[in-house]
Amino acid sequence: MTDTWVSLFSGGKDSSWALYRALEEGLDVSRLLTVHPSEESYMYHVPETQLARLAAESIGIELVEVEPGDLAAAEAVDSAAQGDAELEPLEAALTDLAEEVDLAGVTAGAIESEFQTSRIQGMCDRLGIDLFAPLWQRDPDELAAEMLEAGFEITILQVAAYGLDESWLGRPLDAEAIEELRELNAEYGVHLLGEGGEFETFVTNGPHMDRRIDLEYDTEWHGDSGRIRITDARLAE
Amino acid sequence: MGRRKQIVQECERLMDKPENIRNIAIAAHVDHGKTTLSDNLLAGAGMISNETAGQQLAMDTKEDEQERGITIDAANVSMTHEYEDTNHLINLIDTPGHVDFGGDVTRAMRAVDGALVVVDAVEGAMPQTETVLRQALREGVKPALFINKVDRLINELQEGPEEMQKRLLDVISDVNDLIRGMTEEKDYDWTVSVEDGTVGFGSALYKWGVSMPSMQRTGIDFGDIMELERSGEEGRDELQERTPLSDVVLDMVAEHFPNPVDAQPRRIPTVWRGDDESEVAESMRLVDEDGEVVFMSTDISMDPHAGEIATGRLFSGTIEKGQELYVSGTAGKNRIQSVGIFMGGEREEVEKVPAGNIAAVTGLKDAIAGSTVSSIEMTPFESIEHISEPVITKSVEAKTMDDLPKLIKTLQQVAKEDPTIRVEINEDTGEHLISGQGELHLEVITHRIRDNQGIDVHTGEPIVVFREQPQEKSREVEGVSPNNHNKFYITAEPLSQDIVDAIKLGEASMDMPELERREALQEAGMDKDDSQNVEHMFKTNILLDETKGIQHLNETMELVIEGLEDALEDGPLAAEPVQGALFRLHDAKLHEDTIHRGPAQVIPATRDAIHRSLIDAEVRLLEPIQDVRIDVPSEYMGNASGEIQGRRGRVDDMYQEGDLMVIEGIAPVEEMIGFSSDIRSATEGRASWNTENAGFRVLVDNLQTEQIMEIRERKGMKLELPPSVDYI
User: Fold this and answer.
1) What is the pLDDT of residue A48?
2) Longest alpha-carbon distance in chain A
3) Which of A136, B97, B544, B651 could, after both became Cys, cross-link B665 (CB 3.0–4.6 A)?
């Protein structure tokens, strides 16, 4: 096999968009790679990563799952050291994969996080592969418009930012929601696409997927933040 | 040419001679006769007919003022007076005496150099006599005394010469005690005395007056006065003829009040903190009409034809139409549309007004009462902080949607004109809030919205404004950002009253150079290290940064401060403002990546930490209280003191004064709502009473929860107390 790409994939809108752009560019993405952290993480997209399995099924690309166990981020005091420690299982998984396939590079959905991007770039350099990050430093407004234009259907799973209340949990990230976020951005500085962990999403349908994913859930709310608990998820008939 | 036109021309001629100008205010306790006295002066200067002075109340120009018989805004007038063969230009401001309008008095004092304090001979020095004296002396304004209503001593109280003399001397000595107490640290003696001619006596109602110099000049002494006053109308007419009040008072003004050239070198350092070596400082001291324009607006009013009029004192330069001037606190310049002087409620346009005068100009659209307006960018004048904060709030709602934009505009105008009013505009609910100094204050404002602007409004019941304050030192608490990646460690504790007072009086603020602020705080009793750690001050609260070398904290501090201010605007108990609290930032953990420590993370984390620290510091609700004084015939004393005690109040003192009993005490503002009609019926209208805002006091423990819940319910907040903190 030649020139195989791996998509660092969570099922959220950013990693899905990176994957979609890669496929559009004609890159041969043969694996989706998901890390399931069990607790709070500084690096990864946390909630409901198990949904990645359903997404992978709908997309039709093989999923590789990494379960490093408790990353102990909740106890962490130094974000830099923690970020490095979290990268290890990912790098190990990619190293294993590189033995199986001819690894050309990875796709990643970082937009503005220097923290994520510099670490992933460093890892790619060590592995001697390329990084495809089509969202990097793009204007969030334009990105949002492109995602909706392409037909991405996005659900908000988790919010953690001043100004985002319980009503945002489970809400579709559509044009109306973007408009409201724009106002919240002006008022509280909430990031339009939730960078910095302000909200997390899941893509339930898109041009790269065969079947829509239906979700049923409950909501949980604590102080300033909350998340949905998926009670049932299945591919639509 | 009309008489009025002549006066305007004479005023214009005199404006260029600062030595001949006197800028004065008349100030007194409510009903002691300021406005009647002002009218006498106007009549004396030929501006209103002599017959109507005393009834006309020309200075009470707004309908509601004439209806209520009290002065609400400070009103301005210019007049001329010849004294010792020299004509003088007298710019006069009449000020309100009612406690609710104290802010107007403070602002008026900035514009003038002399204050004629009027005291009722029967009532003597009253609480607001003290307040207006303090306001004058703090601004470096020289006082003189006029004892009014002397006719009542003669006719009503039937006092003999000795009794009368004793009573008048007592009033003088009381006033001098006050002046002495307030000028202890000054190197001048501003006490008043009959011998110097800084005390006048008379009756503004019957338009006669005397002073030592006038007695020497006219030969009329107290014996003559008693005789003439007792002989009825004819005698009074003769008194008025031979020793008219206006001459006596205006002579006193010309002789004893400083002109701008004398006053400004002394006043500038009191009211302006700029560089005293600078050119502009020099031209203010010299009252230089060729210098840069420096104007301080002390009053903004609305004229249906001319629009917004800014009245104030011109300290330097010459102000004229077409000038482009800076307005402090705003970007860009405003263009002067017209320049004028006030002639009793009406503005007369003139070509230009030179330094040392009180001018009324249009075109300063960005100016508010208290703005510094100048031809060069400069340090603004000290803000004219009125000491008392708003204590009572009322909601105002337009009855019809069509009036909504007009109502908002009117409310914004109201806030601009009177900085002691706070206006909160809520375009979502349409229910706007105005806060002011008392029930009457708000009543007058809503009256103006209704009658002058013709806007039909619903108003809510008056609501008292509360405060929240920590009572002890908290433990260290943690505030976490929603994404969990940023943490702040903070403690709260109460600030000492001395430091709070220093902040309130503007002695320590973030606007001043750091060194000066440190010294001021240390002087008020703050620890030296603490004074060096001051990171921010918000209202009467202080944030200290005690962290060392935390990466990214500097660039994050702006957000921390935003979170702090947010948390202090809406305290943890009932979202009422927090006061008198000291916060120490001990430590912070910040995510290395900017995107993870944006405003939506840091602001709530700080807000959270501040609220938790306050809760652990035993934060309590504070309510505004008032000093209450009731003068009442002794047979009603029980009923009257019952009115204080029945209102969760406390009677501190009862004593005889003349034929009346005086009751002094304190009571919460909330309970004082409706007091005026209750005390009237309890004493069959025989009591005269007076209240003065006296700050905030911790609400008694057994009412805390109930009150907090009541406020929370009103504000649509959750009906549960904030949970106590999980300590770290």
Assistant:
1) 59
2) 51
3) B651
> In angstroms, what is the C-alpha Rg of chain A?
17
Do β-strands B457-459 and A153-160 pair in parallel, antiparallel, or remain unpaired?
unpaired
Residue A99 neighbours by CB distance under 10 Å = 7
Q: Which of B172, B182, B75 is nearest to B135 (CA)?
A: B182
Q: Which of A66, A58, A108, A62 is nearest to A88 (CA)?
A: A66
Strands of B330-424 (E only): list them: 333-335, 338-343, 346-350, 352-354, 358-362, 372-374, 392-398, 422-424
Read off the pLDDT band of A51 (50, 70, 90): confident
Of A113, A116, A161, the CB nearest to B482: A161
Say whether pLDDT at B70 is over 50.
Answer: no
Within 10 A of B696 (CB to CB), how many other CB atoms are there?
Answer: 22
Contact A161 B600 (CB under 8 A): yes
Domains along the sequence of chain A with CATH: 3-132 (3.40.50.620), 140-235 (3.90.1490.10)
Residue B517 parent element (H or E) = helix B514-523
Rounded to an integer, the average pLDDT of B516-533 is 94
Low-confidence winner among A15-19, A229-233, B489-493 (lowest mean pLDDT): A229-233
**Alpha-carbon span B535 to B234, nearest angstrom:** 71
Q: Can you tell me the mean pLDDT for B536-549?
A: 94
How far is B632 from B652, CA to CA, in rounded Å?
Answer: 16
At residue B688, the pLDDT reads: 78
| Predicted confidence (pLDDT) at residue B51 exceeds the cutoff of 50 | no
Write out chain A residues lying below 8 Å of B428, CB-based.
Answer: none
CB B32 within 8 A of CB B123: yes
Among B484, B595, B604, beta carbon nearest to A195: B595
Evaluated on CA atoms B625, B627, B631, B637, the torsion sign reads: positive
Q: Calculate how close chain B gets to A46, using CA atoms only, in Å.
A: 11
Confidence of residue B74 (pLDDT cuts 50, 70, 90): very low
Question: What predicted TM-score, i.e. pTM, was given to this entire model?
Answer: 0.68
- Ramachandran assignment for B223, one of left (phi > 0), alpha (psi -120 to 50 degrees), beta (any other): alpha
Which residues make Cβ contacts (< 8 Å) with residue B507, sequence separation at least 6?
B520, B523, B524
Distance CA(B143)–CA(B176), nearest Å, equals 10
**CA angle, residues B58, B64, B67, in degrees to nearest 5:** 75
Is the CB of B600 less than 8 angstroms away from the CB of A197?
no
Tell me if chain B has a CB within 8 Å of the CB of A136: no
State which H helix or E strand residue B595 sits in: none
* Bigger pLDDT: B100 vs B239: B239
Per-residue pLDDT, B68: 44
Q: B604 at the A interface (CB within 8 A)?
A: yes
Which tokens sit at B121? 């001979």
Has residue B462 got a pLDDT over 70? yes
Say if residue A18 is exposed, middle or buried (CB neighbours under 10 Å; 0-12, 13-18, 19+): buried
Q: Are B322 and B351 a contacting pair, CB within 8 Å?
A: no
Let me know if B668 is exposed, middle or buried by CB neighbors in 10 A (0-12, 13-18, 19+). Answer: buried
Torsion (CA) B173, B178, B181, B186 in degrees, nearest 10: -90
| Residue B506 in tokens | 């503007």
- The reported pLDDT for the residue numbered B532 is 94
Confidence of residue B675 (pLDDT cuts 50, 70, 90): confident
Q: What is the C-alpha to C-alpha distance for residues A98 and B356, in angstroms, rounded to an integer?
A: 87
Strands A225-235 and B21-28: unpaired
Q: Which of A74, A114, A198 sits opposite B483 (nearest CB)?
A: A198
Q: What ipTM does this complex have?
A: 0.79
In tens, the pLDDT along A6-28 reads 999 989 999 999 999 999 999 99
